[in-house]
Design brief:
single chain, 266 residues, mainly alpha
């Protein structure tokens, strides 16, 4: 099996098995909360994809690969304009989704003022393990591997589908936000994120910090949608934005990192 397929296998096994253990413990021990934020099981499940990604990077590229992976977190790796593009782009997506939700009577909170955005993002990064817990795997290891074999669009769709399926158990757990949303729209939203991240990877020298920022902004924007209908609008807005990016040629003439860089970074 290719390394990326093994990565997917182990990422699924670790996350789903840890989550499954937590659910079994909760059922056998009423009143316990094994997947709460104070539980080691919670952090193991939340950071499992990045953990597997780092392990596979070490196995396939050694210490040099780990150093290159860490170097992709350097803020100066790409122009400041890309950070502005990501922030303003997701602000536009969120505003469009919230406005559409309000038109049909769905519940959504107001957009925070731009001046408090840095504090909001820092607080979200500390509270939400998703961006750091996943992106060292999805975009740190898997995306470079996929781009060695497939086109940017094909790689994005493949990674987006895998990422969507990885979330699948959450749709069957009562109380989780995913349990109430429309699965096809959720899938389109995740694939949209994969497209955004592939464009950024190819045009910013494989900047991993931007992928973490995209994931963070997607979670913050989705968090402003209080009910499932508003959240569905958010996923639809992401899908529309990704379609426009592809139609505008965002993936058709990419500035690839050279082959060695793309391979070694994963």
């Amino acid at each position: 099996m290719r390394p990326v397929r093994l990565f997917f296998l182990f990422a699924f096994l670790l996350t789903w098995s840890v989550g499954g253990i937590g659910l079994v413990v909760e059922r056998w021990t009423p009143g316990s909360d094994p997947l709460s934020t104070s539980s080691p099981l919670y952090f193991l499940a939340a950071y499992s994809v990045s953990l597997v990604g780092v392990v596979f990077t070490a196995r396939t590229a050694g210490r040099d690969g780990l150093r290159r992976l860490c170097s992709r977190l350097a803020p100066w790796r790409s122009s400041p304009r890309w950070y502005l593009i990501v922030c303003f782009g997701y602000a536009a997506i969120t505003v469009m989704a919230l406005k559409a939700a309000a038109w049909v009577g769905s519940t959504a909170t107001a957009m925070p003022h731009w001046s408090v955005l840095p504090g909001v993002l820092v607080a979200a990064l500390l509270k939400d393990p998703g961006p750091l817990g996943e992106e060292f795997g999805w975009r740190g290891f898997a995306l470079p591997q996929l781009l060695e074999q497939y086109s940017p669009l094909h790689s994005s769709i493949r990674l987006g589908v895998v990422h969507t399926v990885w979330h699948l158990p959450l749709f069957f757990i009562p109380g989780m936000p995913q349990a109430e949303v429309f699965f096809p729209l959720f899938a389109l939203g995740v694939i949209a994120i994969a497209i955004f991240d592939t464009v950024l990877y190819l045009r910013t020298g494989a900047n991993l910090l931007l992928a973490i920022l995209v994931h963070l902004l997607a979670n913050v924007g989705g968090g402003l949608a209080v009910d499932a209908h508003a959240l569905n609008f958010f996923f639809a807005a992401e899908a529309i934005a990704a379609t426009l990016v592809v139609a505008a040629g965002g993936l058709s003439r990419p500035c690839y990192p050279n082959r060695r860089s793309g391979h070694d970074s994963g």
